[in-house]
Specification:
Layout: E1 4-7, E2 10-12, E3 18-24, E4 29-39, E5 46-51, E6 57-59, E7 67-72, E8 77-82, E9 91-101, E10 108-111, E11 115-119
Parallel strand pairs: 2-11
Antiparallel strand pairs: 1-3, 3-8, 4-5, 4-9, 5-6, 7-8, 9-10, 9-11
Amino acid sequence: QVPLVESGGGLVQPGGSLRLSCAVSGGQFSFSAVAWYRQAPGKQRELVASVTSGGSTNYADSVKGRFTISCDNAENTAYLQMNSLKPEDTAVYYCNADLRPIGRRSTKIYWGQGTQVTVSS
């Protein structure tokens, strides 16, 4: 299956910013819907943000006003812009994308490999 390659994670101080990227490699696809999840040690994976094919977005209450989800089909990449980061944002972040092969109606769901985000002073 086509992989989703994530990048952009790292160590940042509280109040800082990071932009996570989720790029499609292999084949020709377009994003139908995209979501970002995160999982902290000892915690369940939680939905952080999502965007539908119609452009409707939603965010977890904990990140509203700080995070922005977007996708760029021209670059075959989805993004999560994270501003005003807090220590509680520390987690492994996973991209989840509903992808449509060009010229086809059906879609398939794929997961990225995860990228570590650590917010610490």
